[in-house]
């Protein structure tokens, strides 16, 4: 996340609704990617003014009630139920961070009701009241379990599923990966170079998905899954491998931006680090025209490994588990390289200079 400042010069945060120094009411403008005073010409999203769960702004001249994030909602929780408002606010905060990232990547995000082909919708539901529902993705609809906003609930699920990490933002990123797959890969011809690249890196996506999940939950991941996948769940099927890789790529991208804006450097660490082979960050031959950025991506990802190592050491000093409990193997690096390529089909990516704040 980038840094924001009030007109008085005080630091603001992405979720700020007022300045802690001068008391000025503020909100986030998703078009300009900045915080604005809540002044004439601007108004809060209806979910912010009525329910206090959103701080995004719209121009007063806009005919929309909802901001670029909230207008994607198709189902929201029943606010008559206790705790639902508080849990909904947590879910919306995570969703807004995802939407901001996708908008910064230049990805158009039409509402599913407006665009049945590329549109997106969110259904925020209670899996306690309706156990048949679960977090997932289907034909443009991301379903989020409101109970995941409860820390205890989420950690119990994390332990039962054997996950290294489990966050609401991670859920949002993962499910957005399925949406991106459908928009980018889903309608490609069999001989399309991008589809060929996907098959080479992730495997054949037409494999029986239901059977693959049944096998995963029945037998568990293969013993060598860490050599080829970012998570155990990623080994279940190429679709899930892509979604997990995409979510992980967005996590790295956002973390890098935050550290860069804060002036945090990850280079020159006196720690034993894994050096990725250069060839692990190379796009497949079918995408030869885009291979010129391979060396820059390799350096970028290597700097992330340095930074993640530093962050892990800091969290261990607090007596906490690793902040970044993942291993980027050469096979995973190659998958991240393809995710990087797809992420910037809408807008080119400028790699930071080696001497910059993210180095």
Secondary structure: elements and pairs:
Elements: E1 4-5, E2 11-12, E3 26-29, E4 34-37, E5 42-44, H1 46-51, E6 57-59, E7 73-75, H2 84-104, E8 121-125, E9 136-138, E10 141-145, H3 151-161, H4 168-184, H5 193-202, H6 209-219, H7 238-262, H8 294-317, H9 330-343
Parallel strand pairs: 7-8, 8-10
Antiparallel strand pairs: 1-2, 3-4, 5-6, 9-10
Tell me what the structure shows.
There is one protein chain. This protein has nine helices and ten strands. The chain folds into three domains: 4-66, no CATH class; 68-184; 190-359, no CATH class. With 359 residues, it is of the alpha/beta class. The protein has helices spanning 46-51, 84-104, 151-161, 168-184, 193-202, 209-219, 238-262, 294-317, 330-343, and strands at 4-5, 11-12, 26-29, 34-37, 42-44, 57-59, 73-75, 121-125, 136-138, 141-145. The strands form four sheets. Strands 7-8-10-9 form a four-stranded mixed β-sheet, with helices on one face. Strands 1-2 form a two-stranded antiparallel ribbon. Strands 3-4 form a two-stranded antiparallel sheet. Helix 7 (238-262) crosses helix 9 (330-343).
């Amino acid at each position: 996340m980038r840094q924001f400042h009030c007109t008085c010069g005080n630091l603001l945060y992405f979720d700020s609704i007022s300045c802690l120094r001068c008391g000025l009411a503020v909100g986030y403008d998703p078009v300009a990617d900045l915080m604005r005073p809540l002044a004439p010409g601007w108004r809060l999203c209806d979910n912010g003014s009525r329910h206090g769960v959103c701080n995004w702004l719209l121009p007063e001249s806009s005919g929309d009630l909802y901001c670029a994030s909230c207008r994607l909602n198709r189902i929201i929780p029943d606010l008559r139920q206790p705790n639902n408002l508080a849990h909904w606010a947590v879910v919306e905060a995570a969703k807004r961070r995802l939407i901001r990232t996708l908008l910064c990547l230049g990805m158009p995000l039409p509402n599913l009701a407006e665009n049945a082909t590329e549109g997106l919708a969110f259904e925020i539901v209670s899996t306690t009241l309706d156990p048949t529902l679960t977090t997932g993705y289907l034909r443009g609809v991301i379903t989020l379990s409101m109970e995941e906003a409860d820390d205890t609930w989420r950690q119990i699920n994390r332990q039962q599923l054997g996950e290294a990490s489990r966050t609401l933002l991670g859920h949002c990123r993962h499910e957005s990966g399925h949406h991106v797959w459908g928009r980018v890969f889903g309608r490609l011809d069999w001989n399309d170079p991008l589809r060929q690249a996907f098959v080479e890196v992730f495997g054949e996506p037409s494999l029986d998905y239901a059977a693959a999940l049944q096998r995963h939950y029945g037998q568990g991941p293969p013993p060598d899954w860490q050599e080829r996948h970012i998570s155990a769940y990623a080994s279940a099927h190429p679709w899930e491998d892509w979604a997990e890789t995409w979510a992980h790529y967005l996590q790295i991208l956002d973390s890098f931006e935050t550290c860069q804006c804060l002036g945090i450097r990850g280079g020159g660490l006196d720690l034993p680090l894994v050096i990725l082979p250069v060839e692990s960050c190379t796009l497949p031959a079918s995408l030869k025209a885009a291979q010129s950025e391979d060396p820059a991506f390799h350096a970028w990802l290597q700097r992330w490994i340095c930074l993640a190592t530093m962050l892990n050491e800091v969290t261990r000093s607090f007596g906490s588990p690793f902040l970044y409990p993942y291993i980027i193997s050469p096979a995973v690096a190659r998958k991240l390289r393809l995710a990087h390529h797809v992420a910037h089909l809408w807008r080119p990516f400028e790699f930071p200079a080696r001497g910059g704040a993210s180095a």
